Amino acid sequence: AALQALKRKKRYEKQLSQIDGTLSTIEFQREALENSHTNTEVLKNMGYAAQAMKKVHENMDLNKIDDLMQDITEQQDVAQEISDAISSRAAFGDEFDEDELMAELEELEQEELNKAMKDVRLPSVPSTSLPSRPGKLLACHLLKRAEDEDEMKKLAAWAS
């Protein structure tokens, strides 16, 4: 009985393998059919597009298009020339040399700066000696800063 069961098992495994192969073949065929259908639709749509483009281009002549593009280019060149002519400096006021004018302007600015510097009063030098231990001064400054920050926090808390 055990031998018969083992034979049956082998037979079932063989059938399972055949069925699995058959299913794989069927799946491959189904995919091939789907791809063929997709390719057919794509080809059909490409044909429609080609016909539409041909219909649109029937009334177009490449020579006419080239002539039109040349006319556009010529008119753009004319417009640029007009724009350049309008925006170029007129000859009005060119009787002065710009370098001389710039030199005179710099001279006037320097005179103005010299006058302003004469009126500057420098602070007098302190007569007291500086502290001998800058660490204490720094510590006092940091302590004052911390107190100011605490006061600002209290003020902000009070305001909100």
UniProtKB/TrEMBL annotation:
GO cellular component annotations of the record: cytoplasmic side of plasma membrane; cytosol; ESCRT III complex; late endosome membrane; multivesicular body
Any one Pfam family match given in the protein's UniProt record, by short name: Snf7
Keywords: Coiled coil, Cytoplasm, Endosome, Membrane, Protein transport, Transport
Major localization listed first in the record, in broad terms: cytoplasm
Subcellular location: Cytoplasm, Cytosol; Late endosome membrane
Keyword Protein transport applies: yes
GO biological process: late endosome to vacuole transport via multivesicular body sorting pathway; protein transport; vesicle budding from membrane
Bilayer topology annotation: Peripheral membrane protein
Family to which the UniProt record says this protein belongs: Belongs to the SNF7 family.
Protein name: CHM4C protein
Species of provenance: Chloroceryle aenea
